[in-house]
């Protein structure tokens, strides 16, 4: 694989910027395509901001507890996780690495974005959060497009994976999966997986931050395996796991999760569900989604 053959598709945010900066010091990156998802403020497409906006919409009711308190607590959890992350990496969020061609787009599948990507001539595209990629985009790299998803696939495909891991008491499935991108939603062959070692009562934002810390090493290891011809892709089996859509997340799930974490009091007569709620994590037929969690959504193909 020639030297300048890796392109990154990502969304803006403190975690993705850090991951790209770290990776740029280890491998040669030919270009960075940044999807802003039509947001006026690029920061608003980060995983944290999207979850916060979703919670605000869900809990847009008269200003009464627990709804108003839930909004406040979610923002507090987001801020606390980012502060801990910044302390771990030795400072706050920095900009994109210098000297690498960048293109900002509202849609990586539009013709302008596709034309820019073709000029890069990538062998590999690394996805760190983006919309569903159409066949025209997936045909551009000569080798493959691969995505970083914040769960141990096939469990917790789709959106808000970190939230559902905590909600269903399945943080044993928290971690990073590097997988090939196909026409499904987080269904491509698994290339590499790394689990997370988490403390008790971990919240979704802490999971997302810890996934970001794993990503540079996981991505570099995957690239080394590819270059050495030692990569052994493993099919997921599409009937396994569940794909969560944005609309699966309801206000009652947010309140229940915060009660499980001990951040909201349990009201008289109410109970905190053990590991479940009104949704089942297992499903024989994956649900398709229009986007993934993925700063990290890292975290998901946010697709």
List the helices and strands and how they pair.
Layout: E1 6-10, H1 14-24, E2 29-35, H2 47-58, H3 67-89, E3 102-105, H4 111-120, E4 124-128, H5 135-138, E5 144-149, E6 157-158, H6 161-167, E7 175-180, E8 190-195, H7 204-227, E9 243-244, H8 251-260
Helix pairs in contact: 1-7, 2-3, 3-7, 3-8, 6-7
Q: What's the tally of helices?
A: 8
Write out the strand line-up for the largest beta sheet, numbering strands in chain order.
Answer: 3-2-1-4-5-7-8
Query: What would the principal axes of the Cα set say about the shape?
Result: globular
What's the number of extended β-strand segments? 9
Estimated helix fraction? 25-40%
Q: Please identify the structural class as seen in this structure.
A: alpha/beta
CATH level 3 topology: Rossmann fold
**Mean pLDDT across all amino acids:** 81
Describe this structure in words.
- Helix 5 (135-138) links the parallel strand 4 and strand 5.
- The protein is built from eight helices and nine strands.
- It starts with 5 loop residues before the first strand and ends in a 43-residue tail after the last helix.
- 33% of the residues lie in helices and 14% in strands.
- The protein is an alpha/beta fold and 303 residues long.
- It is globular.
